[in-house]
Amino acid sequence: MHIYTIVPYILQSILWIFFRPFMKVLTGFKVTGIENVTRIRGKKIFAVNHISQLDPLCVRGALPWFWHGGPMYYMARPREFYPKEQFGWKHYLYGGIFFALWGAYPVYKGLKDYEKALVLHTKLLSQGKALCVFPEGKIREDADKRPHGGVAFLAHATHSPVIPVHITGLEHFTFKELFSRKRKVEIHFGKPISYKEMFGDMSITVSDFAKKAAYIMSK
């Protein structure tokens, strides 16, 4: 097993042992629709709404500990997006070697070309991996935020099914609220969206990817 597979697998498996019971006790951590995930073998894209910094952990924590999909890989922002002045000590974790070891790979920014910007993520999907994407980009501040088209590009370029994931209960959370057990977190895995359902036989242009991303998020 390649180091870029085994290290994320070990780290995510160890964290799962602590994170899942922790969230279950404090928030209930209700998971529904897991059958929509387990029935799909091979490459897949998880398209997730972004409401908190715990979202990446919640998605992996909602899956079984011994999951046939292997480690979860993530689309992440580059390290310069996390300045120390704004993120404090988290600056040392976000976007650097820890992210890479966890399975998060950065988008190459400023290229204005999906193929070049998402070359690492395209390769992961082509190798049959599972990729977690937050189409809204950063943590959502309003309900009308438009998703980026990268998730649709990846689905089109690799013919990967997309599993829409909806997280609730962590909006504007604080750890004080978590420990007071006032939060009820729910994660729902929706029905997979196939390549045929999303694109059919239509000819796709770059401008269509944003529309298809909005379709994915509507699910």
Structure explained in plain terms:
The protein is 42% helix and 14% strand. The chain is an alpha/beta fold and 219 residues long. It has a single domain, classed as Glycerol-3-phosphate (1)-acyltransferase (3-Layer(aba) Sandwich), CATH 3.40.1130. Strands 1-7-6-2-5-3-4 form a seven-stranded mixed sheet, with helices on both faces. Helix 1 crosses helix 3 and helix 8 crosses helix 11. The chain is globular and about 50 Å long.
Task: Kindly list the characteristics that best describe this protein.
219 residues; alpha/beta; Glycerol-3-phosphate (1)-acyltransferase; 42% helix; globular
Indicate the topology.
Elements: H1 3-27, E1 30-32, H2 35-38, E2 44-48, H3 55-62, E3 72-76, H4 84-87, H5 97-102, E4 104-106, H6 114-117, H7 119-126, E5 130-133, H8 150-158, E6 162-168, H9 175-179, E7 186-189, H10 195-199, H11 206-218
Parallel strand pairs: 1-7, 2-5, 2-6, 3-4, 3-5
Antiparallel strand pairs: 6-7
Helix content: 40-55%
Q: What is the end-to-end distance? A: 35 Å
How would you describe the shape? Answer: globular
Strand order of the largest sheet: 1-7-6-2-5-3-4
What is the element string, with H for helices and E for strands?
A: HEHEHEHHEHHEHEHEHH
User: Which architecture per CATH?
Assistant: 3-Layer(aba) Sandwich
* Number of extended strands: 7
Residue-averaged pLDDT, rounded?
88
Main sheet properties:
7 strands, mixed
CATH class: Alpha Beta
Structural class based on helices, strands and sheet pairing: alpha/beta
CATH topology label: Glycerol-3-phosphate (1)-acyltransferase
Number of domains: 1
- What is the number of helical segments per DSSP (H or I, 4+ residues)? 11
